[in-house]
Amino acid sequence: MTEQNMAQTTIDKLKSQIGSQVTLRGWVYKLRSIGKIWFLVLRDGTGLLQCVVVKAEVPEDVFAMESRLTQESSVIVTGTVREEKRAVGGVELGVSGIEVVHVAEEYPIAPKEHGTAFLMDHRHLWLRSRLQHAILKVRHQVIKASRDFFDSNGFTLVDSPIFTANAVEGTTNLFKVDYFDQNAYLTQSGQLYQEAGALAFGKSYCFGPTFRAEKSKTRRHLTEFWMIEPEMAYCDLDEDMSWAERYVEYIVQWCLEHCKTELATLERDTSKLEKVKRPFPRITYAEAAEILARKGSDFKPGSDFGGTDETLISEEFDRPVMIHRWPADIKAFYMKRDPANNDLALGVDMLAPEGHGEIVGGGQREDDYDILLKRIRDNDLPVKPFEWYLDLRKYGSVPHSGFGLGIERTVGWICGTKHIRETIPFPRTIYRIEP
RNA sequence: UCCGGAGUAGCUCAAUGGUAGAGCGGGUGGCUGUUAACCACUAGGUUGGGGGUUCAAGUCCCUCCUCCGGAGCCA
Fold first, then answer.
1. Alpha carbon A239 to chain centroid distance?
2. For residue A230, which phi and psi values (nearest 5 degrees)?
3. A211 three-state secondary structure
4. Phi and psi at residue A80, in whole multiples of 5°?
5. Chain B bases under 7 Å from protein CB?
6. Cis preceding-peptide flag for A279 (omega within 30 of 0)
7. Are A88 and A50 in contact (CB under 8 A)?
8. pLDDT digits (tens, 9 = 90+) for A289-342
9. How far apart are CA A49 and CA A60, in angstroms?
10. Among chain A residues 402-431, those with CB within 7 Å of any atom of strand B
11. Distance CA A18, CA A94 (A)
12. How far is the C-alpha of A160 from the C-alpha of A155, rounded, in Å?
């Protein structure tokens, strides 16, 4: 290894390298010139660094590079790290040399305000900007925390397929694909397969993309989104809710500890997240309906909650709230009924605070063969594609439960972003499939 | 699918029916500590498409397209 390679570093490590001669590889984030000094703000994926080029301190050709360089040009910069209160991040680089790797063409995203449509058209470049970078860093940590949580609690990763022959919830619109000469769909949930996983491994989970062909046009919807779905054998609704609150608490506390810089960049009020500690309130659907009645919503009892209703309910609590025991009519066929009231399903939804909507949906599954078969028929679903699913009730059926957590809505809540489309690298919405 | 909103310079937006403009970005020049630097100069337009009314349309009417927000549905 040459001396040059040994000095190779990244911006996030510079605080411990003050006084050292280092080399950084990155891109020009911003340029400012005041004559015989110019400033280059370097971006390397780990942070931003102000680099100072002084005419009297560098060779003439290095100083002359200011006129050649453009925003987002790729450069390798060498210099001495020093403390500097005036610079962003508290350190700066006194430049001794610059190697130009590529001079970028005029960059479309100027350091000024842009509209969302324009930025989304340039999503592949927008990812480089501070806020988008921070949001996706949080997304990464949410996913890491999720895997850590389930991996260290005895769950086995059992990936569900993306192509499926059956519609989990029957009623919702699925993306149909030509699967050779047969119809297939893109999955809208990996849950059914996790039930097989839980009966094989005790506790299993999957994490992958799911697809909904609904023509939703709201800040809470994507046609392609990522869901993490755990499923537990020998688990009833109460235990299911305990898993959900442990998991959500874990993710939020993990991000508070590991995403301090990003949450500060996003100007997130973290005091709201610090309150996300167990136990979370658990209320019934009927109690939630009472809250809405008291607050004057025009909500119709027996129906599902709309976005506004969810916000009204979540405003009552300072942490996520779990709503359980729903009218069976509005829930999926596979949900087990409440032994105390056959009209109610043992389902649970978790609403995030601050109006970020439903982040978790789940419940206890019907484990009786005859009842499940009847439900499939009552819902006018074809029995054939569900035969394997029914088998799970023929060979060692047990009470089991699970849930799914929407990654994008969770990231949106933790980051405090208004639009869910900023929480996924390349969002897919009804009118956007590019870039 | 329904309701509402918007399409004008690369971007963000102005412009009573009467000569299409500004800021930012780009280019040129100036400045030894800038923070969205500043100052001067400069280039940049089929006003989303089509049709109509009018002496005259970015502006009024019809139609189509695109996008945005919300509803429904959902995570």
1. 25
2. -85, 155
3. strand
4. -105, 130
5. 1-2, 10-13, 23-38, 66-75
6. yes
7. yes
8. 988 888 877 787 788 888 888 888 988 999 999 999 999 988 888 999 999 999
9. 23
10. 404-406, 408-409, 419-421, 429, 431
11. 11
12. 14
The span from the CA of A377 to the CA of A387, in Å, is 12
User: Residues of A from 49 to 78 whose C-beta is within 7 A of strand B: which are they?
Assistant: 50, 52, 54-56, 67, 70-71
- Residue listed under structure tokens 């029995």: A383
Q: Which two tokens stand for residue A96?
A: 């001794």
Q: Read off the pLDDT of residues A379-397 as tens digits, 9 standing for 90 and up.
A: 888 888 889 999 999 999 9
Rounded Cα–Cα distance for residues A392 and A389 (Å): 6
Residue nearest to nucleotide B72 (CA to C1'): A216
Length A106 CA → B48 C1' (Å): 25
- Window A114-173, strand B contacts by Cβ < 7 Å: 114-118, 120, 169, 171-172
Residue type at A281 in one-letter notation: P
Catalogue all structural domains in chain A, each as residue range(s) with its CATH number: 3-102 (2.40.50.140), 121-423 (3.30.930.10)
Residues in chain A: 435
Amino acid at A173: N
User: Where would I find the H helices in A152-190?
Assistant: none
Q: HSE (CB half, 13 Å, CA atoms) of A418? A: 1
Dihedrals φ, ψ of A157, to 5°?
-75, 120
Helix, strand and coil content of chain A, in percent to the nearest 5, comes to 35, 30, 35
Nearest in space to A81 (alpha carbons), one of A3, A13, A33: A13
Task: Give the H/E segment covering residue A9.
Answer: strand A8-9
Collapsed DSSP state (helix, strand, coil) of residue A56: helix
pLDDT means over runs of 10, chain A (435 residues): 66 92 94 90 92 92 90 93 88 93 87 80 88 92 97 96 71 75 84 95 95 80 91 96 96 95 89 93 92 82 83 90 92 92 94 89 95 89 88 96 94 90 88 77
Beta strands in A139-241 (DSSP E): 156-157, 163-164, 176-179, 182-186, 203-211, 224-233
Q: Which of A130, A126, A107, A124 lies closest to A47 in space, CA to CA?
A: A130
Nucleotide with the nearest C1' to A69 CA: B26
